[in-house]
Amino acid sequence: MVTLPLDGVRVLDLSRVLAGPFCSMTLGDLGAGVIKVERPGTGDETRGWGPPFDARGQSAYFLSTNRNKVSLAASFTDPADQALLLELIAGADVVIDNFLPGVLSRYGLDKRMLLAAHPRLIWCTIAGFPDSARPGYDFVVQAESGWMAITGPIDGAPTKVGVALVDVMAGKDATTAILAALAGRDRGVQVERSLEITLAGSAAAALVNVAQNTLVTGADAARWGNAHPNLVPYQLFDAADRPIVVAVGSDAQWQSLIAALGLTDLAADPGLRTNAGRLAARDSIVDRVATALQSRPAAEWLDLLGARGVPCGLVRSVREALADTEASAETGVAPAAGGRIRRPPPLLDEHGKEIRKMQWSALDHLPIPLQRGV
Predict the structure, then answer these.
(1) How does strand 122-127 pair with strand 194-198?
(2) Which of 40, 43, 161, 240 maximizes the CB count within 10 A of its CB?
(3) Can 167 be counted among the known catalytic residues?
(4) Residues 72, 37 contacting (CB under 8 angstroms)
(5) How far is it, in rounded angstroms, from Cα 310 to Cα 248?
(6) From 167, 238, 287, 349, the catalytic residue
(7) pLDDT value for 370
(8) Where does residue 155 rank: exposed (0-12), middle (13-18), buried (19+ CB within 10 A)?
(9) What is the strand order of the sheet 243-247 is part of?
């Protein structure tokens, strides 16, 4: 069996909820040994974020971001647990936390001092906002980052994204930063070992082309619903039976689209041969394309447009989308960045006894369970 790229890397995960656990899960997918430290009695808050719960009482929310980890329940206020955590940190390659500033230091877990004491340690803190004691919640950051202002119907209310995508983006950014620091450290490069990822920073960076439009023009971004500010036609349309999306990203694709739709008069219009011209004629083009697409069922259009290389797709439900995806009710959607699912999400303190006895070496002795089913 091929060795996973992070085999032998030790990650102590002091985080909870979504962004931090998503990061540590990704590192675990790639082979890292991950100890998840949780509050005794209740554990990660998301253990109670349900229903739905599976047959063992595990919440779907918790299951979504906690595979490939072992669980240790430890109290920051208990001297014996504080000593255990310090020993685990001494043996770790990476620590991840998402506590508010100053909280860990009150319990003897001072990031600055521990980094000084352990020259190979990398510590990543995931915060809501830079240099702030404000708690980081995805919904709040979506509002303040401009995401909601550009999401939703043109004439409707600002709308959040349906997934806690700021948390996911921050988790991915944290993973990238940690992997870069590990790579630099192991090549003998002097790297920044105290990493901070903020939800606000990840959200701002994820505006990408929308942000650049505003930076170039000086004009604020508008809400476009299911249309695109820079491309036409690139939006939702109704076929005869169900919605589809058409995403014309080039002049050649435009010619293929109108050929498939039989709109020969549009092909003869020189003003529509470039995207700039189509932007100027957005309303009339959308009306013509919409009328044409309503004449056939979605499946027929997907075949016709697909044969001509026009990007298009059905608007599917989550259940429909998951039917084509490797996914499990116990371990979630398969890793997108590679790696392997080795452990189901742990029960609270499931491995506490072994970790207290053997610390990091427990990971070498714990059996790798089969997925337990629900």
Answers:
(1) parallel
(2) 43
(3) yes
(4) yes
(5) 7
(6) 167
(7) 56
(8) exposed
(9) 234-238, 243-247, 312-314
Residue 374 pLDDT class (50, 70, 90 cuts): very low
Token pair, residue 141, equals: 């950051």
Cβ atoms of 374 and 360 closer than 8 Å: no
Residue position matching structure tokens 């990476």: 94
Q: What is the pLDDT of residues 211-221, one digit of tens each?
A: 999 999 999 99
CA distance 172 to 22: 8
Closest by CA to 97, choosing from 144, 50, 136, is: 136
Question: Mean pLDDT throughout 329-339?
Answer: 93
Distance in Å from the first CA to the final CA of the chain = 28
| pLDDT surpassing 70 at residue 340 | yes
Pick from 126, 123, 212, 225: nearest CA to 168:
126
